[in-house]
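== Sequence entry ==
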Amino acid sequence: MAAESENGNCKAWAARDPSGVLSPHSFNRRAVQSGDVSLKIIYCGVCYADVAWTRNKLNDSKYPLVPGHEIAGVVTQVGADVKGFKVGDHVGVGTYVNSCRDCENCNISLDNHCPKAVYTFNGIDTDGTVTKGGYSTHIVVHERYCFKIPDGYPLAKAAPLLCAGITVYTPMMRHNMNQPGKSLGVIGLGGLGHMAVKFGKAFGLKVTVFSTSESKRDEAINLLGADNFVISSDTQQMESLKNSLHFIIDTASGDHPFDPYFSLLKVGGVMTLVGFPSEIKMHPASLILGARTLSGSVVGGIKDIQEMVNFCAANNIYPEIEIIKIDYINEALARLVNRDVKYRFVIDIENSFK
């Protein structure tokens, strides 16, 4: 371990134990292979997954753990067989860095659902090594899991697209939530929720934000462009919207009731869950009587990710971010737990390791 932490070719910050406290660390990235892209990491977004695994909330953390799976950077080297990238390209890496590339899901570009998908950090790669994420100076990945960021799109704002953005974009496209004039409800206004609002408005939807906090009303409407803001605990406000929504995206990870939201959907309406509450409790009539659908979704496939990045660039869709240096990360993670961020922390990696 001493050799890993002192002599590695990649500088990073890592958690050593379930306290989740991060501190400087070094380790060795693999050499670039024929199909690989090596990129200098310029920015890395901060996701709640970084909290979950640094603090061993899923009981599978492998320390020292380098988190980060919203990576934006610049290509510095490509393998001999790489066709899609060249040195100097602006690129992103998301939540996974490998898959079997030959199963039913991989064959339709849904590598995120591959049984052998390898997470960007805390995963076991095909060579048996533990993957380490974007809180580091560079990363080496196969070109299949690298995405081109169009010229002119700010790298700092590109980083959160690779997890927060794609997590809401994927189900919106799958369930045809891009039909102008239709209505969308967004539950929760954090890193994911604010991107759902932005996509909804870009698709021409009438967007209603549901929150437990009145303090978010002004930003929901005046900053993000939502058409309506509802305090979800206000039964009168909720009652006034019954059978009014075509779609709902639920980004809330805290436990909350589901039946009140289903009552807001029109006949045939769709509610997609992208958060992780501890359980789902609902009456079957909430689905059956309105012919409604409850679906789940997690990040997106490789074609969807590139499509989403291109869509954001073409439509000037940018996450709302707060840029920090890596030495602020422990405070940032604490603030993330307390929901004190508008709406995504992004680490300035390039200037943190000088």
In short: The CA atoms of residues 21 and 330 lie 6 Å apart. The mean pLDDT is 95. Residues 164-296 form a domain with the Rossmann fold fold (CATH 3.40.50.720).
